[in-house]
Amino acid sequence: MHLVAELVEEQTERLAMVPKGEDTITPTRERPRITLFVDEGAEVMTAGKDALEGLESMARMGRAACIDLWWATQKPTMSGSSAGIPPQIAPQLSTRICLAVSSPAEARTVLGEDAQAMGWTADELPAPGYALVRDGKRKPNAVKTRALSPKQVVALPDRPIWHRPGVAPVVNMRKPPAPSAPPTADSTDERVLRVVVEGPARQKDIAERSGLPKGTVSKVVSRLIESGQLARLEDGTVAAR
After folding, report:
1. Is the pTM of this model over 0.85?
2. Which of 39, 90, 132, 204 has the greatest number of CB atoms lying within 10 Å of its CB?
């Protein structure tokens, strides 16, 4: 959630910079093109529903701000709030890449309702190693893909992860951090509450002031909101009840 909020703030500033008569800003060293890759989309929507509004905003307007959203899922036909491809985002995806799927319904979900009629039969692809790419320019011809093992992914060269000036960068999780003993649920609750009782705060600020990982803070805040000990305010901050 904190990363999505950070990107939405950046997007808002960039959209105000789009020159009159132009469709997008021009990337610079200070404002580079950003790629946001959402992996396992169905799981993200299960665990991070609060981020959906911001992700939808970037799907609609991110291109003008040079912020590209890539959405990946192995469960495209899941329904409800855990949809592999949320209905708010699916229509905004301009390029669709589909590996071999098990049914025509999955092919239509990824490649469009007219997929079967137009020859985009991803359910007939040989697996693994081939995909269909639909971007409005290509014909439904399979392309060869490359698979990387986990070890090969970890061995890829490090690239700096974007962050707004003055905001601590996100840790590159391809390089596993040194193991540490996880705090107990009670201690994490207390550390979050100690920060919030001083006044409303955003989750990224709670993480910095409590010393807890941002992912842990997100889970603790959600739990404390459900239990009624915290409340989320309209400006996105959380406060003690």
Report:
1. no
2. 132
